[in-house]
Structure formats: C-alpha cells, structure tokens
Amino acid sequence: MNQSREHTLKEKIDSFIFGKLIDQPRWELEKALIGHVNSVLDLGCGSHSDIGYFKKQLERTVGVDLFLPSINISRENQLHHEYYKIDILSAAEYFGENSFDCVVALDVIEHLEKTDGLHLLDQMETIARKKVIIFTPNGFLEQKPFDGNEWQRHVSGWEIDEMRQMGFDIIGINGWKPLRGPRARITIRPKSFWKRMSYLSELYVTKNPQFAFQILCVKNL
Fold first, then answer.
1. Cα 99 to chain centroid, rounded
2. 99 Cβ partners below 8 Å, 6+ apart?
3. Contact criterion met (CB below 8 Å) for 147 and 192
4. In 3-state terms, what secondary structure has residue 130?
5. 8 Å CB contact between 49 and 78
6. What does the pLDDT look like over 35-73, one tens digit per residue?
7. What value, to the nearest 5°, has the Cα angle with vertex 186 and ends 184 and 191?
8. Whether 13 contacts 199, CB under 8 Å
9. 3-class SS at 187?
10. First to last CA, the chain
11. Which terminus, N or C, of the chain has the lesser number of Cβ atoms within 10 Å?
C-alpha cells in the first residue's frame, strides 16, 4: 500500500471512530448559526473560513478582509456570496447598525492589539441584530507571520473570564491545551497518537473550556 492510500485509509478510520470530533469548530458553529440566523458577516474571513460550509443554508454571507490574496482565494472557492476589502475596524461605519443577524470573527481578534480588539467587539455588536461570535486561542498563543501575511502574527490574548464578563458563553474547542501549538498543530510526538487523544479530550473540554486549546465565544444580543 502506497503512502497516499495508507494516509487516506487512516483518515477514513479516524472519521468513523471520532466522527464530528475531528472538525469540532465547524459543528459548534453550525449549532450556533443554523436555524437561528439568516445573514452572517465574516470579519477577517481569510482564505478558508468555516462559514463557507454553511453558504447554502444561509441567505447571505459576506466576507471581509484587508489582505487581497486571501479574498481572492476565498472568492475562487466561492465561500461567501459577497466580498469586501476593507478594514474590519471600520466595518460598522461601512455596513451600518443592525445590518446582519450575526457577525463573526474567527481566528481574528488575537491578531489585534487589545484596544483594537475591544473596538472590534463594539463594532460587531453595533452591526449584529442577534449574535456575535468570536473564535480565538484560550489566552495568548505566540504565532509569527506566514504565507507572506504580516496580519497572521498574534499580538493579544483573550481569557475566558474577560469574555464571560462581556456577556459571552464559552465553548472549549480543539481539545486539551498542551497538545497543540501555533496554527493548532499537534506539537507532541507521535503526532498521530496525540492527535487522537486531542479528539477524545474534546468530550471534556467542550464544557470545561479552561482546559481547552481554543474557545468559541457566543453572545446573544
């Protein structure tokens, strides 16, 4: 059996055993969005936003990013209905108050200085009618730029307690925190074993987010 076929077989076995645990962020997003909102503004959408999985189930999804190459890749993959190259910190000025059911920022707020991140949250609450959703590491996670995109650098960390104080419900994502590092990659060898342990640990950290690698923060307005 060649390496490619062996890798595919392992993926199929993992999918059968672990099911939705393999792509937990997507399924938690689906629970928060589908049946609750019809329009979503995706701030800092990047090139591969999970919102693209729900495009056909939503009436309108709009991707916003300042890095044009990311917008172009996302547009080629038809992840959103519309795209805009604008500064996300000016989004409320551009789109207006209560213009979307839900506003999301997935893997975005940690790339902003703290004051800018708080301003972003204010912008999101201005635009959203029903929900604001943030996906971010649990606390500060060092990450350097990659793919020629300086915006990929992490400059702030967001803690569970501060998000709760701002009215967010918190869901633990991607398993036990010590198992992963930058870009949510497994850092301990053998990686195939610890990746599976990470999947299993999601069963606990989902409702105990203080132990999770990342957090999904949902605020109902």
1. 21
2. 41, 127, 129
3. no
4. strand
5. no
6. 999 999 999 999 999 999 999 999 999 999 998 999 999
7. 155
8. no
9. coil
10. 54
11. N
Complete DSSP assignment for 11-56: HHHHHHHHGGGGGHHHHHHHHHHTTT-SEEEEET--SS-GGGGGGG
CATH number of this structure's domain 18-173+214-220? 3.40.50.150
- Identify the band that residue 148 occupies on the pLDDT scale cut at 50, 70 and 90: low
Mean pLDDT of 177-181: 97
Find the helix or strand (DSSP H, E) in which 76 lies: helix 68-76
Q: Which two tokens stand for residue 1?
A: 């059996």
C-alpha closest to that of 179 among 170, 171, 191 = 191
Domains of the chain, residue spans: 18-173+214-220
Q: What is the pLDDT of residue 152?
A: 78
How far apart CA 193 and CA 212 sit, in angstroms, is: 18
What are the DSSP E strand ranges found in 74-208? Answer: 82-84, 100-106, 128-137, 169-176
* Dist. CA 134–CA 111, nearest whole Å: 13
77: left (phi over 0), alpha (psi -120 to 50) or beta: alpha
In whole angstroms, give the CA distance from residue 169 to residue 158.
Answer: 14
Residue corresponding to tokens 């996300």 = 88
What is the spatial distance between Cα 102 and Cα 79, in angstroms, rounded to a whole number? 17
- How does DSSP assign 25-36, residue by residue? HHHHHHHHHTTT
Q: How many Å apart are CA 84 and CA 42, to the nearest integer?
A: 10
